[in-house]
Each structure stands twice: as structure tokens, then as C-alpha cells.
Design goal:
Rossmann fold; six-stranded mixed beta sheet; ABC transporter transmembrane region fold; alpha/beta; four-stranded antiparallel beta sheet
């Protein structure tokens, strides 16, 4: 949690004000029992009404000052903790935004969501408690012990006996709860994962009548988390009455021994009253510290998980000296590229070499798992290659800044992703300064304008989260329009026509042909009909290039390509 303290630096002045307010409030709380003892000795015992009124007025003044200090410290503590939480969430979001896909694969989406929300909330809560309780409790305990000693040294032996017992109890409880809180955070991750899969896959679950199975999975994760929380609450249920019992017995012992000392004339009634209140203040401060020992371990576990994210160095970073392309527009060359996923034994792609230039359509085809999507994911540098090089306009992609590299590319992913907002907003993600006319033109080329105009509101139609209120084909066409409005040097279509019917597919490719004539185009597909007119077809088989050429050339020279064609087309269509 120490490494997170840098996020509190902007609030240094406010923290000083909080500490000052708490210090003054604690001094007032410690002074009140002394005044109470004085009012008993000087006023009540002597029957001096004037002294009672004078000390009573002073007590009211001290109480009013304590209230003002409490309000100030509470308000500022809330401001600091919420600001701290906001800064922490922003930092995690920025860090995660810079992760490569390898880091996403290593952490997982569910745990990143938990760390950004639940873990930050735990730290935010303990921050306000530290400022309100962990600072005042030790001050109250130390001040109470000093003032109790001043009132009666012999009666303080009761506290000398009780306080070690309380301290031992708090340490014992903390040692039991720290492992449980670490376990709780992992089990929250698990429950979020199952819940997220259930919500995102609700259609598949209903289609395969797997609701009962998913309910069992969720109940298992939920019950596991519940059982751990029950263990935590059992310890807390044991702690509170135990401490309260000790406090009550301590108060009883103080009154018993104090009464004996008063009867012997060794102590006055005002001192016993003050001592009793000091003892209760000391006990309450011990109780507050016990609660802190409950909260801090959980926040510590959350802080460790957050630090793990913040301390992770992204695998893909910009070079110290960024280069710019000097020649060509969208010329791409793969030179002996080999790539393997993190932790994999075998490379996914091996010795891939080819080149593509502007005005050319390069199609990539192959069986499932042959590495088609992996290959085109290397161009925008979603992953870094193991060996070889990928050049754009003569410059290695690792020598570009990521922003510059990706600004040259219009990418349409295999799974079309839409965001909540209007249709125009989703297309404008491709280029923020795109005009309404450019958005409409891109939609026309993507064969999306017809269904957009039929929608209520047209381009201002609200897309639901994840695009659940449009069909798969409509999502793909909007994703294509988003890439087109960017007007990049390089277009990458990763199986982006799979949800389209053959008529729409043909119309879209015909419209695209004129629009992307000056750009380098990559099309990943399983459909032979989509790649037949490509200038270059790359056939992948188990991560290696099985053949490169035109449709006719590959039919004659590439066995793998001919098998794919024969599985989709009749002999007449092949001829």
C-alpha cells in the first residue's frame, strides 16, 4: 500500500488540515473528563453553583470546538478519500489501456474489472478510516494513559493488566483474518467471471438449455464466497462481544478498587469519575484499532492486487527514437516472421515472408487454427514477433510510435464490436473529426445506409451496449464503415464478411474496390468466393505458408488451396 501513497501527494495540504482538526478534537475529548472531575470536586462536592456554571460553560465551549473540528475532518477526509479513489481508478485505466493483448490474457477481464472497482473501493474506505480512526485512536490511547497516571498511579495497574490482553486479542484476530481477506478478493474475481460469462453468453445458454448448469456454476462460486465471508463474520462476532466484556469488567474493576480507595481517603470522587472516563477512552481507542486491524488487511490485499497492475510493464512500448516512413504509402513486407504466444511451446507462425503494396488486395485463407487472424494482428502490433521483421514503407513496425502505426490502419476485427451511443458516434470512432457527409458516405460504401435510414432516428439511433439491438450483419457493416471513414493507408478485414449474405457481400466488395484503390488491403476469410478476385492469395497451413499466388495459380500448384476450393465449390464453378 506504500507505493499507492504517491496518489495522495496532491492532497498534502488537506491532509495537514485533517490531522490538525483531529488533534484538536482529541485534545478536547481528553480535556472533558478532567473538567468533569473538577465540576464534581469544586462544584458538586462544595455546593458552589458558580463554579458548576463556569466549568459547565467551558465544557460546552470545548464540546462545540470538538464538533467543528469533527465536521471539518470528516468533510476533508471524505474529499481526500474519494479523490484518491478517482485518481487510482484513472491510473489503473490508463495502465490497462496500454497493455498488450498478452497482458490482457495474463490478467483476464474479470479480475481487471474487480481491481478497478471493488479493490479501489476497499482502499478508499480504509483511507477515510485511517484518517478518522487510526490517527485519533493512538493519540487517545496514549493521552488517556498519561492523564490516568496523573489521576491515580495505583489504579492504573488495572489498565496495565487489561491492555496486554486486548493487544494480544487484536493481534490474534488480525492473524486469522489476513489470509481470509486475501482469499475473498480471489473469490470475488471468480464470481465476477462466472456472472460476466452468464450475461454475455445469455443467448447461447438459453439456446442450449444450459440455464440450470450455469446456475450451478454461479451458486458454487457464490456459496464459496459466502462461506469465506461467514468465517470472517464469525471472527468479528467473537471479537466485538469479547472486547465489550473486557471493557465492562475493566470498568467494574476500576469502580470496585476506586471505591475502596475513596473509602480510605486515598482518592476523591472527581478523580474516580475522570479515571473511569479515561479508561473508557483508552478501551474505545483499542476497539477502534481492532476494527482497523480488520479493515487494513483487506485493503492491503486489494493494494497488492492494484500494485500488481500498476507495476506491470507493458510488453509493447514505443521506441526511444521514433522513426517515420520515408517512402511509399502502405507498402508492407514480412521477412521471415516467427511468432509464438506467451507460454506456448510451439510457434503459431513460422518463417512467414511476403510483400504487399498499395492498390493490391491480399487475401489470407486457411483452415481453422492455421494462424490467419494471428498474422494480421501482428501488423498493428497487437503482439510483438519472436524473430524476423515486419516493415511498413521500409520501417520496422517496432520503430513506429503505436499511435502513428495504428493511425495508418483501418482495422475491422473478426468480432464486430459496437459501443453504447448513436450510430454516428460509432462510425466516428474511426475519425473523430469526420463530418456528417463523410459518415453517410462511408455507410453507403459499407452497404449500411439502407438499414440505418429505416431505423427510428437514422444516424442518431441509439446502439445498446455491445450492439445487442442490431444483427450480426449490421454490426459488421457498421464496423466496416468505421474503418472506411478513417481513409487509412492499410485496410485489414479479419473475416469481416462472414455474417453477410452473398448478395450483400458481392455488392460491398464491388463498392469497396473503387474506394480502396490506393490502399493496401488484407482480407482474412474462409470463403473462396471472397478471395477469387484477389491480387494475391496467401494460403496458411499449420502456421506456415503453403502457397502464394492468384486463384488460378494456386489451383494448379497448391494442394491445400485446392482442397479448400473443392470443399466449397462444385466442379463447374471451379472450371
Amino acid at each position: 500500500m506504500i507505493r499507492l501513497s504517491r496518489f495522495l501527494k496532491p492532497y498534502a495540504f488537506m491532509i495537514i488540515l485533517v490531522l490538525g482538526s483531529i488533534f484538536l478534537q482529541t485534545l478536547g475529548d481528553l480535556y472533558l473528563p478532567t473538567l468533569m472531575g473538577d465540576i464534581i470536586n469544586k462544584g458538586v462536592m462544595q455546593g458552589d453553583t458558580g463554579e458548576i456554571l463556569r466549568i459547565g460553560a467551558l465544557m460546552l465551549l470545548v464540546t462545540a470546538g470538538g464538533v467543528i473540528c469533527a465536521v471539518i475532518s470528516s468533510y476533508l477526509s471524505a474529499r481526500i478519500s474519494t479523490g484518491f479513489g478517482a485518481s487510482l481508478r484513472s491510473s489503473i485505466f490508463r495502465k490497462v489501456s496500454g497493455f498488450s493483448l498478452n497482458e490482457f490474457d495474463r490478467f483476464g477481464t474479470a479480475t481487471l474489472i474487480t481491481r478497478t472497482t471493488n479493490d479501489v473501493f476497499q482502499i478508499q474506505m480504509v483511507t477515510i478510516m485511517i484518517m478518522r480512526m487510526m490517527i485519533s485512536a493512538p493519540m487517545m490511547a496514549v493521552g488517556g494513559i498519561i492523564l490516568a497516571l496523573r489521576r491515580d498511579r495505583q489504579l492504573t495497574l488495572v489498565l496495565a493488566f487489561v491492555l496486554p490482553i486486548l493487544a494480544g486479542l487484536v493481534v490474534f484476530i488480525a492473524s486469522k483474518m489476513i489470509p481470509l481477506f486475501r482469499s475473498v478478493q480471489k473469490k470475488i474475481d471468480r464470481m465476477n467471471l462466472v456472472l460476466r460469462e452468464k450475461l454475455t453468453g445469455v443467448r447461447v445458454i438459453r439456446a442450449f438449455d444450459a440455464a440450470e448448469r450455469e446456475e450451478k456454476r454461479f451458486n458454487q462460486a457464490n456459496d464459496d464466497l459466502t462461506d469465506t465471508y461467514i468465517k470472517v463474520n464469525r471472527i468479528m462476532a467473537f471479537m466485538v462481544p469479547t472486547i465489550m466484556t473486557i471493557m465492562s469488567l475493566t470498568q467494574l474493576a476500576i469502580i470496585w478498587f476506586g471505591g475502596q480507595r475513596i473509602s480510605r481517603g486515598s482518592m476523591d470522587l472527581g478523580s474516580l469519575s475522570s479515571f473511569t472516563q479515561y479508561a473508557m477512552q483508552i478501551m474505545m481507542s483499542m476497539l477502534m484499532m481492532a476494527f482497523m486491524f480488520i479493515m487494513v488487511p483487506r485493503a492491503q490485499a486489494a493494494a497488492s492486487r492494484i500494485n500488481e497492475v500498476l507495476d506491470t510493464s507493458p510488453e509493447i512500448v514505443d521506441p526511444e527514437e521514433v522513426k517515420e516512413a520515408v517512402a511509399g504509402r502502405g507498402h508492407i513486407e514480412f521477412r521471415d516472421v516467427t511468432f509464438r504466444y506467451q507460454g506456448a511451446e510451439m510457434p503459431v507462425l513460422k518463417d512467414i515472408s511476403f510483400s504487399a503494396g498499395p492498390g493490391e488486395v491480399t487475401a489470407i485463407i486457411g483452415s481453422t487454427g492455421s494462424g490467419k487472424s494471428t498474422l494480421i494482428n501482428l501488423i498493428p502490433r497487437f503482439y510483438d514477433i519472436e524473430s524476423g521483421s515486419i516493415l511498413i514503407n521500409g520501417v520496422d513496425v517496432r520503430e513506429f510510435s503505436q499511435e502513428d502505426l495504428r493511425s495508418r490502419i483501418g482495422f475491422v476485427p473478426q468480432k464486430a464490436v459496437l459501443f453504447s451511443g448513436t450510430i454516428a458516434d460509432n462510425i466516428r470512432i474511426g475519425r473523430e473529426d469526420a463530418t456528417d457527409d463523410e459518415i453517410r458516405y462511408a455507410a453507403e460504401i459499407a452497404q449500411a445506409s439502407e438499414f440505418i435510414e429505416q431505423m427510428d432516428g437514422g444516424y442518431e439511433y441509439e446502439i445498446a451496449q455491445g450492439g445487442t439491438n442490431v444483427s450480426g450483419g449490421q454490426k459488421q457493416r457498421l464496423s466496416i464503415a468505421r474503418a472506411l471513414v478513417r481513409k487509412p493507408e492499410i485496410y485489414i478485414f479479419d473475416d469481416s464478411f462472414s455474417a453477410l449474405d452473398f448478395k450483400t457481400d458481392a455488392s460491398l466488395r464491388a463498392a469497396l474496390k473503387k474506394e480502396i484503390a490506393d490502399s493496401t488491403v488484407f482480407i482474412v476469410t474462409q470463403r473462396v468466393s471472397t478471395v477469387m478476385d484477389a491480387d494475391r492469395i496467401i494460403v496458411l497451413d499449420e502456421g506456415r505458408v503453403a502457397g502464394i499466388g492468384t486463384h488460378r495459380e494456386l489451383l494448379e500448384n497448391c494442394r491445400v488451396y485446392r482442397e479448400i476450393v473443392e470443399s466449397q465449390l462444385s466442379e463447374e464453378e471451379i472450371a
